[in-house]
């Protein structure tokens, strides 16, 4: 980013134009690239610092004595400038087909003299176009319009809301084109995958097969370029930067999976994601058990340590080789995971989510079973299976095609292809799983 900015600025200066114009053109180039959000995130910490330098330097150029000598002229020119710029900007919004509310917002938000005008004014002074009182008049009017910008923003919001409540025609209310056509299509209730390594790729494949909408955030530009060419919904950026997460519509997402290797970055992303979306369900992959507690404290809902899962996979394969029954292995796995996670489970946020269900049921798990064609449970009713009586689990809902059957009765018959949502203790669900295979 810095190389592009400095390079373009140097080229414009070499061509006989100003460095400021080159920097402006570089900003336009970067804003249209796939790295725009990452660049914005990198520049934000410096924005306030450089803004303060800019306003201090502009204020030092203004002659207050001139302002006190010509107050009426300055006020009149301020009004003319604001109305003129608001009219021009508003007409541009009308031509583009925006509704009246957006026209008002655009006009009043852009009514002030822009910062780039000061760059042009310096060139005017250098060539003798602006001299003496003319330059001071320009400075006074420009600075005053910029000082009024916060108040104009408040006025814009109130004026736009007041106009929206009026009985307007459809063209004034919605514009020449529907507003949705003018906006980037945003996702809602989707999955955000942060990190596109081995875990992220497998998760994206699973989400794609299940028909779940997802967005990917990846830091490797080569990976982003390759996957975007394949049609993946992937964007480049450092997920620790707020603009990058907002680009992935994190504020509208249902679940975020953080699968990056840097522990510090993982903690920062977890904290930022929770701040941007308090209802987001956050699953974090980490390497060691010792990293679980800080992540839970920062707002993670589930933390999956590779250290734990690796050990579980190893002893599962060992026990299989010794021909230990599958049910006993699953029971032992449940006990190990419960022992490893139980001390930290209280640090997790006091809710668990499954689809549109909002539950707060400690010590219970929600599992989904899809009935295959040769399943022994197919063709039987919920009452015949006696899941609650024999196995201690309850069927809370059945998804059948597009239909969702909630709280099914004992007479409800199960068919191949049905998706059962079952709740119960993990070891009980493991025992009952043989019925759905």
* Name of the top-level CATH class of the largest domain: Mainly Alpha
Question: Structural class, from secondary structure content?
Answer: alpha/beta
Supply the CATH architecture of the largest domain: Up-down Bundle
Task: Give the helix proportion (percent range).
Answer: 55-70%
Mean pLDDT: 80
Span of the ends, CA to CA:
54 Å
Number of beta-strand segments:
12
Tell me the fraction of residues in β-strands, as a range.
Answer: 5-15%
Query: Stretches where pLDDT falls below 50 for ≥5 residues?
Result: 178-183, 343-360
Secondary structure tally, helices: 20
Number of domains: 3
Please write out the topology:
Blueprint: H1 2-14, H2 19-31, H3 36-61, H4 64-69, H5 71-95, H6 100-109, H7 116-126, H8 132-147, H9 149-164, H10 170-174, E1 191-194, H11 198-210, E2 214-218, H12 221-229, E3 234-236, H13 242-247, E4 255-258, H14 263-276, E5 281-286, H15 292-297, E6 302-305, H16 306-321, H17 326-345, E7 352-354, E8 357-359, E9 365-370, H18 382-385, H19 387-391, E10 394-400, E11 403-406, E12 419-424, H20 426-432
Parallel strand pairs: 1-2, 1-4, 2-3, 4-5, 5-6
Antiparallel strand pairs: 7-8, 9-12, 10-11, 10-12
């Amino acid at each position: 980013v810095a190389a592009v900015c400095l390079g373009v600025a140097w080229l414009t200066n070499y061509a006989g134009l100003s460095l400021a114009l080159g920097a402006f053109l570089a900003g336009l180039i970067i804003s249209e690239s796939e790295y725009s959000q990452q660049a914005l995130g990198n520049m934000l910490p410096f924005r306030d610092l450089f803004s303060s330098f800019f306003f201090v330097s502009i204020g030092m150029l203004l002659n207050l004595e001139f302002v006190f000598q010509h107050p009426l002229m300055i006020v009149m020119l301020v009004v003319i400038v604001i109305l003129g710029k608001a009219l021009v900007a508003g007409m541009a919004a009308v031509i583009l087909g925006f509704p009246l509310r957006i026209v008002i917002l655009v006009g009043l938000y852009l009514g002030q003299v822009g910062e780039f005008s000061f760059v042009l004014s310096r060139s005017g002074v250098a060539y003798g176009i602006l001299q003496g009182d003319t330059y001071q008049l320009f400075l006074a009017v420009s600075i005053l319009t910029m000082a009024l910008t916060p108040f104009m923003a408040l006025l814009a919001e109130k004026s736009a809301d007041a106009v929206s409540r009026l009985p307007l025609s459809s063209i004034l209310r919605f514009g020449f084109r529907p507003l949705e056509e003018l906006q980037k299509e945003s996702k809602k209730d989707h999955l955000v995958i942060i990190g596109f390594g081995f875990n992220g790729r497998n998760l994206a494949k699973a989400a794609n097969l299940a028909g779940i909408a997802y967005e990917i955030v990846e830091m490797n530009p080569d990976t982003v370029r390759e996957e975007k060419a394949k049609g993946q919904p992937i964007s480049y950026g450092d997920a620790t930067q707020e603009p990058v997460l907002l680009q992935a519509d994190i504020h509208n997402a249902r679940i975020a999976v953080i699968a990056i290797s840097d522990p510090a970055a993982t903690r920062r992303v977890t904290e930022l994601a929770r701040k941007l979306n308090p209802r987001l369900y956050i699953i974090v992959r980490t390497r060691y058990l010792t990293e679980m507690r800080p992540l839970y404290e920062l707002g993670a809902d589930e933390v999956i340590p590779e250290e734990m899962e690796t050990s579980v996979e190893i002893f599962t394969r060992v026990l299989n080789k010794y021909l230990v029954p599958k049910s006993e292995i699953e029971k032992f796995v449940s006990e190990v995971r419960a022992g490893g996670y139980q001390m930290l489970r209280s640090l997790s946020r006091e809710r668990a989510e499954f689809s549109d269900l909002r539950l707060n049921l400690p010590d219970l798990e929600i599992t989904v079973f899809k009935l295959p064609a040769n399943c022994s449970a197919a063709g039987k009713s919920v009452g015949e299976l006696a899941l609650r009586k024999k196995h201690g689990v309850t069927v809370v809902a059945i998804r059948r095609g597009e239909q969702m059957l909630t709280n099914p009765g004992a007479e409800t018959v199960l068919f191949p292809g049905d998706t059962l949502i079952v709740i119960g203790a993990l070891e009980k669900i493991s025992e009952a799983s043989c019925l759905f295979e």
